[in-house]
Amino acid sequence: MLFCNIDLLDEKFSLKRGQYVGVKDGVIAYIGDTAPEEDYGDRYDGCHRLLLPGFYNVHSHAPMTLLRGYAENLPLQRWLNEKVFPFEDKLSEESAYYGTQLAIAEMLASGTVSFTDMYFFLDGMTKAILESGIKCNLSRGLTVFDGSDYEQTAAYRDNLRLLDEWHGANNGRLLADLCIHGEYTSTPKVVEAVAAQAKARGMRMHIHLSETKAEHEDCKQRHGMTPAAYMQAHGVFDVPTTAAHCVWLEEEDFDILKARGVTVACCPASNLKLASGYANVPKMLDMGINVALGTDGAASNNNLNILQDLYLFAVVYKGYYHDSTLITPAQALYAATRAGALSQGRLDSGRLAVGCKADLCVINTDTPQFIPMTDAACNVVYAAQGADVRLTMVDGEVLYCDGEYRTIDIEKVKAEAQRHTDAILRSL
Predict the structure, then answer these.
(1) Residue whose C-alpha is closest to residue 230's, from 219, 244, 246
(2) Could you tell me if 141 and 205 are in contact, meaning their C-beta atoms sit under 8 angstroms apart?
(3) CB distance 337 to 56 below 8 Å
(4) Could you say which of 76, 166, 206, 347 would form a disulfide bridge with 139 (CB–CB 3.0 to 4.6 Å)?
């Protein structure tokens, strides 16, 4: 495809007007202010359109779209134990399949090209991911509350399948990660066993870390160390790790994350809605910690529109720390794009540059909130809506364009998602 006469945000998120961008074999092959001589196939009219790297949602629980609006206005532990866990006990592979399809449809429509997920029901989830064409780093959620060895758990068996059957599927669009749900939902010997497996197989890790004050302080009571120190002590950070939330970090925790190259998945909407607090993102950025963006699940957000979290990421820390200079638009956009790609180990992605994967989105700038376009990056961060996204491309393949899904039967997905949720609610 050739994007013609289109405005774009370059690698530094500066505006370039009237550019031509050629995509070939899934890669950005040409960027210039004149039309290339080579034929790139279909031509896309870039009038009143802005091209930028697609977004990365690095912490989600996709099938939880089925819980949207169900578990509300509760603190985290009551939210989990009274609402989420009983509902999840009723889920099936089929319901997870439709919940994942619904999540992917929502993400594609708001410019997300890849997501990092932690959940169960691998057969249903992988089917939905592979059919859609989106990229995903998928991990099987692990919780152990007794003295079981890791090898005795269903998660161990699922992880072997995930690593052996699905890792690298669809030309690398689907990658497998390993997962520890959190310190408070596991045991030290299981954490060490999963960390050892990740190291032996060269895998990445996905965890929750210091999401709430209670989680953080209880870990210190149980183990005499913070969750970050605990995960380091048990080998989790020996492999590249994405740690979600990181709201209650202490001074030494920041040093641990920096030294071990941990990516923080910041989820501002979920942290605000569940009253978890404010991650110290300015300190993380000052230290050079890789900070990326996540929506969390739809039960705690309640949507998967990454542009909402992009906006909150860019503004809430200004208010909390009383400093309007914190978090520039470029820093926010980097967190939503390149930082997310790096967290997934996709080194050739997340940038609008020749040679990078053609994972792109197009935003309509012919809307009231984009005029005047004094600063395009500011307009995207502070004004853009999910509905402004008109095209989402993954590996050079258009998956969503002008309200049309190329790989998802959206009407069937909506009907089936509602049917499965209704059936579960009747059984509770």
Answers:
(1) 219
(2) no
(3) yes
(4) 206
